[in-house]
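Continuing the batch. This is chain 6 of the set; chains 1 through 5 are on the previous pages. Same settings as before, nothing changed between runs. Recording input and output for traceability.
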Amino acid sequence: MRLVLLALAILSCGVAACSTVPPLPPKALELNQTGAAALAAGDLSTAEARLSVALEYSPRFTEAWVNLGYVELRRGNLQRARKHFIKARDLNPDLPAPHHALGLLADRRDIGKEAEGHYRQALKVDPGFVPARGNLARRLFQRGAFEESREQYLRLTQVAPEALSGYLGFAECLLRLDREAEADDVIGRARLRFGDAPELVMLVARQLLRRDAFAEAEEILAPLTDDADRPRASAAWAWIGVARLARADQAGARDAAREALALDQENQVAAGVLAR
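Output for chain 6:
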């Protein structure tokens, strides 16, 4: 999950650079872009070299400092990453990217309150900064602040209507708040926009399980057990295990749970099926 978020942050910071005064040298802009591309590809040495030269051309190039910080974050050099992110923030606190980067760093260290603060600061600077909106919603959900998380996911559906993650998070929050009819409506609207995306099919199956439609839930989950995404395939097997357990098919439930754990040893749903 964190790698995905990191990739999103890299793209948001590195693809296009904001202009400052004086204008950034074209070569600095080019090196920042190609450095961000190397970072996204995992070539950290090349990324570091390109970004460092970009900063030679323009030492006040905020985005290049942020991207250089991401290089160190990927390497696990958290103190150096923090130094670069703070440098970027001090150079231009009116850009959202440095605040968001500091949030990711706090996230990496599992300092939730600090991470939330940085994400909120990024959104104060730019309410349309999608990575910060998504990460703030996720942190709120993780600590059980479902109503606050719902608000952020709802806003995410407006600032990034092309992103499925906003609708998924919005629906998940509504389910945690026992607002199932509203969740159904969000899932339905998402299916109209995105079709039968695997994540949406999983949500539909869970709704069917809540309504005791166990056979139907297993039927739509079955194709997902061959999904190339191992955690998703594991989740499908785990929920099939739940469906079978509810039908008193203990042997079938046990088999499904074992399939789930073979794909993802951390699957708590599957572990719960086996325990029961």
